[in-house]
Amino acid sequence: MSSPNRILVNGRPDGMIDPLDRGLAYGDGVFETIRFVGRMSPLWSRHMQRLQDSCTRLRIPCPEPERLWQEALVVTQGLGQAVVRITMTRGAGERGYALPAAPQPTRVLAAFPAPIRAVDDYRHGLRVRLCETRLAIQPRLAGIKHLNRLEQVLARAEWDDPAIAEGLLCDEAGRVISAVMANLFAVIDGVLITPSLERCGVNGVARAEVQAVREVQVCDLSLGELWQASELFLSSSVHGMLPVRSVDDKVFVPGPVTRALQQHWCELGFPTELA
Amino acid sequence: MSSPNRILVNGRPDGMIDPLDRGLAYGDGVFETIRFVGRMSPLWSRHMQRLQDSCTRLRIPCPEPERLWQEALVVTQGLGQAVVRITMTRGAGERGYALPAAPQPTRVLAAFPAPIRAVDDYRHGLRVRLCETRLAIQPRLAGIKHLNRLEQVLARAEWDDPAIAEGLLCDEAGRVISAVMANLFAVIDGVLITPSLERCGVNGVARAEVQAVREVQVCDLSLGELWQASELFLSSSVHGMLPVRSVDDKVFVPGPVTRALQQHWCELGFPTELA
């Protein structure tokens, strides 16, 4: 038996990318990273909804979810725990920013073994760094999981200590927005809060799931307010609900809201070692 | 004789891009668009300097200019008037934002016939639209011609009237920064001014050439100040010095500073019909 195809480009197993693809030239596209458990993907519909919304906002034609599902099953074949990255670009185009009259979008599905976090990360939480890199304020792109990710690359490059798992990002005005690779939740005065993503940040699928099952207040949040949190945790469609143990020298302890949402994550069908 | 190779990827004429290239995944790279006149490229050294600076800021290994020059000669072969786009990415990597320990950068050289502008554009100037899209403020990326260009895609998508050639971009705070595809100069009270690019915008090679031959004041500029300009023009390494005839309903007339810089452009070796 031949080894499974872990990458499909426009459905082709040996597919490569045209050097003139606008995804490469301008980051003109969007992506999703989707957790699979065998042939199941508990948040698939939410990912499809966000992909559709993102494509609509950027005027990129969006493929049928059914086709993406079939291709995801191909690339994850034989992987017990997988992450599928779907990348949709506006496709190849002439030189220049103007939108092509008849775009031929490029579709990439790539499967990776799901990254495994230590059980300790879920029990006691992650060590987090407060990043110096600030997120720029750009309401026209805010919320979209688009391919312009240099800010995240710069932020992640701020540390190489493997004991630090994540970075906390503020926007140019100093508001707390998210982690580098995850959204952020805090319990402050007994209220579950997540930062507004109207100006920057990525509208996470795991964040949407939390909002669907708990009352969440979406608001602006300063660092001073964040330090008052009785619980702090990250939401990630790849990693689930991750308590924050510390942000630099500020210490936090996982509490009942975090535990309840970890429990919910297991009930969705994600592996129980994630809580 | 076979037709010339207009694209080289890492020196290979049939080269394609790995679907896992970070240039595609995150826009993790930089580019240059360089005007060629036959086998001559008057601003080549300035492009090489900027490419080196950009790569250094993003910690991407930069290839030797001599190798790029040889490859540029290959892709432009037989083209009298060409534009060469050089794209440098951090190369393929594992999933995730963290920098690869040993990056294998990807190098794309692609040649296009140089776009021709009407002589009237150089004589009387371009019609320009004031864009609604604002440039986000991000000092860590300001000046770099990187691959995160969704703002320019959004701005250019604001109009499809072919009579409008360019868009004027302000930053989130309302300061005038540049055009979508070019830098901006204004003569105000007899002083030649170009907006500061400390917060956003691209540090243009043609802009640097203007700064090398004229006294230029670099400063913040409001729209109110811009409307007082006696001359307004754009600088572009592809198109040279382009007067602005109008920004929406505000009208401008090309003046002596614009004409002198167009003359300088010809003296550099660019075609004389560009003035």
From TrEMBL, chains A, B:
Query: What SUPFAM superfamilies does UniProt report for this protein, alphabetically?
Result: D-aminoacid aminotransferase-like PLP-dependent enzymes
Any one GO MF term held by the record is: pyridoxal phosphate binding
Write out the GO cellular component annotations.
cytosol
Q: In which pathway does it act?
A: Cofactor biosynthesis; tetrahydrofolate biosynthesis; 4-aminobenzoate from chorismate: step 2/2
The entry's keywords: Folate biosynthesis, Lyase, Pyridoxal phosphate
The chemistry this enzyme catalyses reads: 4-amino-4-deoxychorismate = 4-aminobenzoate + pyruvate + H(+)
- CDD domains assigned to the protein according to its UniProt record, in alphabetical order: ADCL_like (cd01559)
Which cofactors, if any, are listed as required?
A: pyridoxal 5'-phosphate
| One record GO biological process | 4-aminobenzoate biosynthetic process
Stated EC number for the protein is: 4.1.3.38
How is the subunit organization of this protein annotated in UniProt?
Homodimer.
Give the protein family.
Belongs to the class-IV pyridoxal-phosphate-dependent aminotransferase family.
- This chain belongs to the protein called Aminodeoxychorismate lyase
Q: Per the UniProt entry, what species is this protein from, by scientific name?
A: Dyella tabacisoli
